[in-house]
Amino acid sequence: MRFIPTDLKDAYLVELEPRGDDRGFFARTMCREEFSVIGIESDFVQQNISYSAQRGTLRGLHFQKSPHGEDKLIRCISGAIVDVIVDIRQDSPTYMQHQMFELTSRNRLQLFVPKGFAHSFMTLEENVEVSYLVTTRYTPSSEDGLRYDDEALGIEWPLPVSVISDKDANWPLISQRDGRLY
Ligand SMILES: Cc1cn([C@H]2C[C@H](O)[C@@H](COP(=O)(O)OP(=O)(O)O[C@H]3O[C@@H](C)C(=O)[C@@H](O)[C@H]3O)O2)c(=O)[nH]c1=O
Questions:
Q1: Dist. CA 78 → ligand 1 center (Å)
Q2: Hey, how many other C-beta atoms are within 10 angstroms of the C-beta on 107?
Q3: I need a labelling partner for 22 at 20 to 30 A (CA). Which of 55, 61, 76, 167 fits?
């Protein structure tokens, strides 16, 4: 695997290193030893998949509040998404900055998102499946989120939103919050 630093501290794009032969190829998608070489010691405990039927479906931006923060390793296994992450660690040099990545079943790129980030994606095609590993079990009481259209974030989504959950359409704006985000 090749780890490509992003503009945001501690977040990486993870490129596969396929070993090809007559049958096709083989590649590792997660390897504790390779991750630890660059200082990632994530202990993944749950794997999730989501299916979105329509192009323009938006999920996020989600995080679990500290101490239930989770590292995530995201992969689009069918179709294509733009994945958007926001660094919400108050002591980080890239605090409140966001970055957008195109993850597709063709480029097979993975995105490593550390705890203390809000995470979201928008589907660019119909019938999209996203698979991801997380390091913390689902803790609904610590669930939180940022609004995809919060002017304080200024995210330029590539498509109009076609489908969004009520929960995601109604997260409070950053200007309406007190205290630390994470
Ligand atoms: C995240 C999650 C949800 N659920 C349940 C709660 C609910 O009934 C149903 C759908 O949940 P949600 O609406 O939160 O699903 P979704 O909006 O797809 O949530 C996901 O969004 C992306 C962007 C992330 O980063 C993920 O960590 C996760 O928060 O699944 C679990 O049982 N376990 C889980 O780990």
A1: 18
A2: 14
A3: 76
What's the CA dihedral at 18, 122, 119, 143 to 10 degrees?
Answer: -130
Does residue 179 carry a pLDDT above 90?
A: no
In the predicted structure, residue 23 carries a pLDDT above the cut 90: yes
pLDDT digits (tens, 9 = 90+) for 30-46: 999 999 999 999 999 99
| ipTM of the prediction greater than 0.90, yes or no | yes
* Closest atom of ligand 1 to CA, residue 120: 23
Tens digit of pLDDT for each residue in 146-159? 999 999 999 999 99
Ligand 1 pocket list (CB less than 6 A): 48, 50, 59-60, 62, 119-121, 138, 165
Domains of the chain: 44-176 (2.60.120.10)
CA of 19 to the centre of ligand 1 (A): 34
Catalytic positions, written as ranges = 62, 132
Separation of alpha carbons 102 and 111, rounded Å: 10
Q: What is the pLDDT of residues 69-84, one digit of tens each?
A: 999 999 999 999 999 9
CA of 62 to the centre of ligand 1 (A): 9
